[in-house]
Amino acid sequence: MNYYRRKLIESWIVILALLAVVSMYQDNAFIARGVFVPVAIYFIMNARVFKHFQRSAPSPKQVIEGSSTIQKWCIAAVGLQILVAFSFLLSGGNLGDYLTGPASLFVAILFPLAPPIFINQKELYRRLGEQA
Questions:
Q1: Where would you tag: which of 36, 50, 91, 120 has the fewest CB atoms within 10 A of its CB?
Q2: Cβ 121 vs Cβ 12: under 8 Å
Q3: pTM over 0.90, yes/no
Q4: What pLDDT, in 10s, does the model give residues 15-57?
Q5: What is the per-residue burial (b if ≥16 Cβ within 10 Å, else e) of 78-103?
Q6: H-type helices in the chain, by residue range?
Q7: Alpha-carbon distance values, 131 to 22, 80, 126 (Å)
């Protein structure tokens, strides 16, 4: 495993730890906001590595065009979001009553983006190994 692959895995761990701390302490605003400071410092200290990742990673367009499954997933997810939005709009309901807390909002936002993000990271990991 080369240096860049280790840094990529390390960044995944940092992001997952950030999400875990924010979701665990979402009621304590000081901790939920304060955890972003060490993460920001980590990313600033490793800016050179992340610029290398940007050059090596496939673009979102390449990821979506590269897989018909991802294309279908994105179309279905957007369609589902439009359907939910129109149903709440026409019924006069408030979606905010169902999405309480940052964790549920995170899931609602990440739902359509998760497969392309995972494919993108897998391709980046593969490309970083080829460069070694």
A1: 91
A2: yes
A3: no
A4: 889 888 887 887 888 887 888 899 899 999 999 998 988 888 8
A5: eeeeeeeeeeeeeeeeeeeeeeeeee
A6: 3-24, 29-34, 36-45, 47-56, 60-66, 68-91, 102-110, 114-130
A7: 35, 39, 9
Residues 6 or more apart whose CB falls under 8 angstroms from that of 64 comprise 70, 71, 74, 116
The residue extents of the domains of the chain are 1-56, 58-132
Q: What gap in Å lies between CA 38 and CA 91, rounded to an integer?
A: 44
CA distances from 66 to 62, 70, 77, 79, 127 (A): 6, 8, 18, 21, 15
Report the C-alpha gap between 51 and 45 in whole angstroms. 12
Count of beta carbons in the 10 Å neighbourhood of residue 14: 15
Token pair of 46, please?
């490793």
